[in-house]
Design brief:
It is a single chain. The chain is about 0% helix and about 40% strand. The protein is mainly β and about 110 residues long. The strands form 3 sheets. Strands 4-5-6-7 form a 4-stranded antiparallel beta sheet, with no helix packed on it. A hairpin with a 2-residue loop joins β5 and β6.
């Protein structure tokens, strides 16, 4: 039986971490030319299903091998813009939620 990993998306990357030790098993950058814009500072939404990890980043969708982090396929989601991605598969759903606080100073 394969070791269960924790999948994390941050700053245009997806990483797999051993939840028992915190040791990183792999890390994959999602940007880098071709038909995709650089995603180095973008939030990443991830969801794992069977032996794949799906990652949404800056309006693009990526499918990665859960064991190695190798990108199996990318999809630029042509015509859908470059917003955050919500993912749902197998009864699981992941949404990116952002909160902003504003401070005002009165003099």
């Amino acid at each position: 039986m394969e070791k269960e990993l924790l999948y994390i998306g941050s700053n245009g990357h997806v990483a797999a971490v051993d939840p028992a030790t915190g040791e990183e098993a792999w890390r994959t950058g999602l940007g880098g030319g071709g038909m995709f814009s650089s995603t180095g500072t973008q939030d990443v939404t991830v969801i794992q299903h069977e032996n794949r990890v799906f990652a949404g980043c800056y309006g693009h969708l990526f499918c990665l091998d859960a064991a190695t982090g190798r990108i199996i396929w990318p999809n630029g989601l042509k015509g859908m813009g470059y917003n955050d991605i919500t993912l749902s598969i197998g009864g699981k759903s992941i949404q990116y939620v952002s909160s902003h606080s504003h401070s005002t100073t009165h003099t």
